[in-house]
Every structure is written in C-alpha cells, then in structure tokens.
From TrEMBL:
<protein>
    <submittedName>
        <fullName>UTP6 protein</fullName>
    </submittedName>
</protein>
<dbReference type="InterPro" id="IPR011990">
    <property type="entry name" value="TPR-like_helical_dom_sf"/>
</dbReference>
<keyword id="KW-0677">Repeat</keyword>
<dbReference type="GO" id="GO:0030515">
    <property type="term" value="F:snoRNA binding"/>
</dbReference>
<comment type="similarity">
    <text>Belongs to the UTP6 family.</text>
</comment>
<feature type="domain" description="U3 small nucleolar RNA-associated protein 6 homolog C-terminal">
    <location>
        <begin position="302"/>
        <end position="572"/>
    </location>
</feature>
<keyword id="KW-0698">rRNA processing</keyword>
<dbReference type="InterPro" id="IPR003107">
    <property type="entry name" value="HAT"/>
</dbReference>
<dbReference type="GO" id="GO:0000462">
    <property type="term" value="P:maturation of SSU-rRNA from tricistronic rRNA transcript (SSU-rRNA, 5.8S rRNA, LSU-rRNA)"/>
</dbReference>
<dbReference type="Pfam" id="PF08640">
    <property type="entry name" value="U3_assoc_6"/>
</dbReference>
<feature type="domain" description="U3 small nucleolar RNA-associated protein 6 N-terminal">
    <location>
        <begin position="4"/>
        <end position="86"/>
    </location>
</feature>
<dbReference type="GO" id="GO:0032040">
    <property type="term" value="C:small-subunit processome"/>
</dbReference>
<dbReference type="InterPro" id="IPR055347">
    <property type="entry name" value="UTP6_N"/>
</dbReference>
<dbReference type="GO" id="GO:0034388">
    <property type="term" value="C:Pwp2p-containing subcomplex of 90S preribosome"/>
</dbReference>
<dbReference type="Pfam" id="PF24892">
    <property type="entry name" value="UTP6_C"/>
</dbReference>
<keyword id="KW-0539">Nucleus</keyword>
<dbReference type="InterPro" id="IPR056907">
    <property type="entry name" value="UTP6_C"/>
</dbReference>
Amino acid sequence: EQRLEDRIPELEQLERVGLFTRKEIRAVLRKASALEYKIQRRALRKEDFINYIQYEVNLLELIKKRRARIGYSFKKDEIEYSILHRVHSLFNRATGKWKDDIQLWLSHVAFCKQWNAKHQLSKVFSTMLAIHSNKPALWIMAAKWEMETRLSSESARHLFLRALRFHPECPKLYQEYFRMELMHAEKQRKEKKEFEQAKMDLGEFNYSEEILNGEMARIVYRDASQKIKGVEFQLAVLSIAKLFDFTQDLQKEILESLQARYADDPLTWDFMARRELELGSLPATEQTTKQKKVSEMAQREERCCAVFDEAVRAVPTEDMWKCYITFCLERYNRKTNSAELKQKRLERTLSVFSKAHESSLLSEALYKQWLQLLLDSSFSEKAVEVAEAATRHFSQSMEIWQMRLQVLIQLKREDVTQCFEEAIKHVKSKGTLPLWTLWVEWSEGTNSKEDTEALYQRSLHATTPAESVTMKEMYLDWTYRNCGYKKVKRLFTSLCENRPFSLDFFRKMIQIEKEQESCKILHLREYYERALREFGSTNTDLWLDYIKEELSHPQGKPENCGSIHWRAMKMLQGDLVEDFVSKYTLLQTGHL
C-alpha cells in the first residue's frame, strides 16, 4: 500500500501536464495494484517480477512517445526518475532473490545502459561480479564499459587485474586487457597531439613516453606469455597489436617470440607464410594495369608457397600439409578474371596434393577434397588412381571406399563389382549399410534381375540385424516394382521369419496391398496384426489406422473396432494410452 501511495505524485503530474487522461491513470493504478500484490506473496515467482519490470519499461516508453508527440520535456524528475528508481529497486529485489540467474543481471545491465544510469550500473557490476566472479565474460563486459563509456582507463585496469586474480590462465582476459592498454595509449597519443596542435601549455601534466609507446601492453603480453602456452594466444595478441599503428616494436617482439618458442608448430609456419601475401604489396594507383596486378599476386603467392615448402621440410607432419593444402584451396577458390592465374593455382594445388600423398601424410578428409577437385577439373584417370591409393591407405574406411566406388560408377568402369567385393572384404560388417545400398542401387540399373535379387539376399545375411531392416524395405520395394504382386507377397512372408523389422516395412506392404484392384481385407488384417505384434505397445497411429481400415474398407467389419480398441488399451504403455483415447475420440466425432 505504501508503494502504491508513493506513485500518486507522479500520476498526478502525468495527468496535470496532459500526458495521460484520468481514465488512463486509473487503468495504470489498477494494473500496478495487481502487480504489487503479486510480488508481495509469501511464495515469490520470478515471472511476477519480470512482468512488473516489463510493465514499467513499457510505461516509460509510452511516456517518451507522448512527450515527443506533444513536445513537452519538463517535470522529468517527478515522473521518469521516480519510475526508474522503482525499476531499479525491483531488479535489486529480483537479483537478490535469484542470484544465480545471469540473464536477470544482464537485463538490469541493459536497462541501466538504455536509460544512461551510470552510477546505478557501477553498483550493479560491482554486486554481480562479487557473486559471479567465476565468469570471465562478465569481467570483460564491466571493464569494457568502464573504458568506453565512463572513459576511465584506471577503473578498467583495476577490474582486469582483479579478474586475473580469479582467472590467472584465461587467454581471453589477457587479450582484452592487452587491447585495453593499447587503446589507453592511443587515446593519450591523440590527446597529446591535439594539445601540441593547439600550442597549449601542459603545465605539470606530462605524458610518459613509455605509456605512449604501449609499454604497459608489452608488460601484459610478457606476463601472459609466461602463463599461457600455445600459438593461438600469440597469434590472437599479434592480430590485436596490428590494429594500432604505433606497435611495430611490440609486433616484432611477439613475432620473434613466436618463431623462437613455437618453431615446430604448423600454425606458426602457416602464419609466416600467409604474411607474405600482405608484405611487399605495391600501393594501388590508377596506372597499375590488370596484368601487373595479376603478376604481383602470382609473385606473392609464390613467396607464400616457398615458405610452405620450407615448412613441410622442417615440420613434416599431417597438420603441416593440411595447412599448406588449405591455403592452396583457398587461393584456388578465390574469384579471378585471369584464366592464367586460375590455371596456375589449380596446378599448384594438385602438385601439393601429390607431394603430400607421396609423403604418406594426407588425411582421409583431404583425400576426399583431392578426389572432388580432380573430378571437377575432369582429370578422371587421375581420380581413379587417387581413389585406389586412398583405399590402400585407409582400407577400413567405409567413406573412402564409397567415394572410390562413386568415382568408378560415375565413369562407368567395368571393375565396379570387383571393387565392391574388395570393399566388403576390408570394411567391418558393422557400418557397411551405405556400401550395400550403393551396390544394390547400381545393380538395379546395370545387372539382370537375377543378379540383383541374389545381391539383395546376400546383403540380408552380410549386414548387422539393425542394418538389415533398411535392406528389407529396399528389397520389398524393388521386388514389387520389378516382379509384381505375387512375388512380393511370397517375399514378405519369408522376410517375416527373421527379426528385426521396421514400421515402414509393414506400412510398405499395406500400401502395396491397397494399390491392388482386388484389395482383400483378410490380407490387410494379417499385415496389421504382424505389425502390431512388433510395434503395438509403442505406436498409437498403427491402432488407429487399423480401426480406420475396418470402418472404411468395403469388406471391413465395423463391429471389430471395439475389440481392437480394447486390445490397444491393454497393450499401449504409459502416456500413450491417454494419447490414444484422445485421438480415438476425435476419430469417432469425425475430426480425425
């Protein structure tokens, strides 16, 4: 009641200045009363607080629009500030009760930023970080706000140092702290330059040359590089340093440290090679012809490749070759109008693939990319050779065999069957399903019916029980398309002798029966009964389809529906019974 009474002055002001009518004021008061009572319960709910806050925020937005419409900008202390104070106290109560809810804290932060409540936001950050000191991202957010909004480098530095006490080995914190020190140095350099241009006397205030040259950032980097190992961190710091034009010495130090400490790491070599693309580029002028640009780009790429060649000699590992090949593929995929440059890039990429293959340091994924590139570039003979070599290296990889077979099928080679036999021999029985599906699909379009049928029969024994389910469906479908109804019915009966089955296997047979001119209900009942034996306890739709069939088929017996319903109720498990009852009711009323 006290809080509702505290609203009265602001509501009176809203009415007096003409922003709201008497009727609207009453509506606001009614809604506020309802929301106040909800957050005064003994058992508090987070949603009530969120709804109340959302209502107040919407009210603020509405007042803002009304002010703009009538051009009235006075009495903000009595109206807006009163509402803002109430929202802050609601947020404080909510975050005090549900301290672990990060989203609630972040909503309060966003609200403070939106309404420029700097003093309040400082308090929110300080309370939040006391509770959630284990989350580096929150420390970074707070320091960034201090640096960019409050323009206080000292506060930001203080926050980063506190954060590093909690997270002494967090790379992201060090990166952002390093960036902040460089931003601080840049800000001071600009200030000094402006003072010098204005010829103002700085008096006692003097700028330290060391800070202006980024010495603080250098100290942060040295401290971090002792605690954090790995090339990724060094490269991340270097990329930040590159954004500032006064960090040449610092960049040089980071590079030297990178080369000295991580000379055997592929990422170091990759970075050093890619640097050649940026180095030595001529300033673009209008007189520079296209031919010159192309030749300059070709030279820079050659320099990169020279570094990569040195790298694969110094560090002959799979990862190093991967970096080299990735670079070549990136350059090849770049758009260029020069056919000569495109051809040179293609030749270089294929050459690097060959060298990596000769060193036996090509990964499975890269063999796939090589094959794809050869096929796209119409080197079909080479593609066959590469596919064969890949299956020698990765003889147990189903995907590599699959790619080799697809290449042979695409080129319509004669030795496809022989290759399939070889693949099945090398790959373990578990996981061979894609090979069998590819084989039977190829056989359907190439071999005789007898050969394909023999292949289907063989696949049922060769695959694992779980995988044979898919082969049964395919076999049933192929038999119906090629051998007719009588044959498929015999096949269905024989396949039913060996579990497991899939629901689609039975549905396929039911569909086939329905497509016949003399569709017999006896056969449909047999198929439904077989399916229900397997899936009756877990599938409500199957029971409903059976009931529909009895109701709609010319030879069906609607009187059987009762007994089917009774059986379903007995057989279905758990919540499925309820689901079945509701669907059956809809069916009876004609809504299903």
